[in-house]
Amino acid sequence: MATQSASRTVVKDYLFEWQGRDRNGKTVSGETRAISEARVQATLRRQGVLTTKVKKRRTRSAKRIKTKDIAVFTRQLATMMKAGVPLLQSFDIVARGNPNPSVTRLLTDIRADVETGTSLSAAFRKFPTYFNALYCNLVEAGEAAGILDTILERLATYMEKTEGIKSKIKSALMYPIAVLVVAFLVVSIIMIFVIPSFKQVFTSFGADLPAPTLIVIAISEFFVKWWWLIFGALGGGIYFFLQAWKRSEKVQMFMDRMLLQVPLFGTLVRKAVIARWTRTLATMFAAGVPLVEALDSVGGAAGNYLYKQATDKIQQEISTGTSLNVAMTDTNVFPSMVLQMTAIGEESGSLDHMLGKAADFYEAEVDEMVAGLSSLLEPIIIVVLGVLIGGIVISMYLPIFKLGSVV
């Protein structure tokens, strides 16, 4: 298996469109992925097709495969299987209709594995970059129970909802970050190019300048002299911080804890994490995955180390016979509403349904908070920018006002 995977990485193949005649003389056409035109002709010859035209399809440059692409593929595959389309044919239809060549290649590789007798879950596990343990475990459970189409549909719904939460949080953060970046660039341009011109004019006055004006000029001189250091240190610092956040577990734990304590945004992040946690556990439990095994995937899917540690603690307590509600209560990270709905779900035997309701509630809370934060941040940002830019402008015009009063 390892040799096969390595060879796929090295050998580059292409998608060819072909036309020809079969054994009965009937005109046929299609598409075949191969490493060369000769390989296409040889493959079709073995199938009894005499090719008359083989042309390499021009594809757009490959794009990175995003989680959204996997969610769309899962939804399409679930729809095909619900309609009774065979699995291999479903892969063909979805792969040909995808606009991203990288996704097409990925699906073609998975289809080739399934065609040789590999189970669908095992084929997915060969690509952990795109299909995590939760995805593969759910597919495996669906294959074992004979309800793969239903599991894929639930999995698609789960991915769509979790991606929706991520995009909403990103949209809430994008506006203030973009405004702050633009404000920094504008202030830098004013300090480097505009303020020095005013300084030359003020020098000709031969009078003492007001303190605010002297402060702004001193900052401008620092920017003019050390602009390369300021931009380099700021850009390098952000880059190395993001790399450390991505690669260092200690930095991730620190940032995850800190994000939960930030005013306003901390509450938003906490509700989003709880929504993902409950949605993941509800999906896993509804698919028939045992609770202890389901918790293996839930902690990582929550996207926060504090809740991952809490999930590990819950899993240990449940394995010793403790109920889920009691184990969750002992972690002190879940709100009372989630705990009460979990207790009701355990008593009534509808844990997946109650957890799903809790996820729906917190997803709606995230929507409301994002809308509220957007309307709240706009006036705050306008006031901050007004004070900053207005302060600079007033500081530079104070000497002119002073000169006018003297005259």
Number of strands: 3
Kindly state the mean pLDDT as a whole number? 82
Spatial arrangement of strands, main beta sheet: 2-1-3
**Number of helices, counting only DSSP H or I runs of 4 residues or more:** 16
Radius of gyration: 30 Å
What can you tell me about this protein's structure?
The protein is mainly α and 407 residues long. It is built from 16 helices and 3 strands. The protein has helices at residues 2-10, 37-46, 67-82, 87-97, 101-115, 120-125, 133-145, 148-203, 211-247, 249-259, 265-286, 291-302, 305-319, 324-331, 336-348, 351-406; strands spanning 14-21, 27-34, 50-56. Strands 2-1-3 form a 3-stranded antiparallel beta sheet, with helices on one face. Helix 11 packs antiparallel against helix 16 (351-406). The protein is flat, with a radius of gyration of 30 Å.
Topology:
Elements: H1 2-10, E1 14-21, E2 27-34, H2 37-46, E3 50-56, H3 67-82, H4 87-97, H5 101-115, H6 120-125, H7 133-145, H8 148-203, H9 211-247, H10 249-259, H11 265-286, H12 291-302, H13 305-319, H14 324-331, H15 336-348, H16 351-406
Antiparallel strand pairs: 1-2, 1-3
Helix pairs in contact: 3-4, 3-8, 4-5, 7-8, 8-9, 8-11, 8-16, 9-10, 9-16, 11-12, 11-16, 12-13, 13-14, 14-15, 15-16
Entry summary:
With 407 residues, the chain is mainly alpha-helical. It is built from 16 helices and three strands.
From the structure above, extract its key features.
407 residues, mainly alpha, 3-stranded antiparallel beta sheet, 16 helices, 3 strands, 76% helix, disordered N terminus
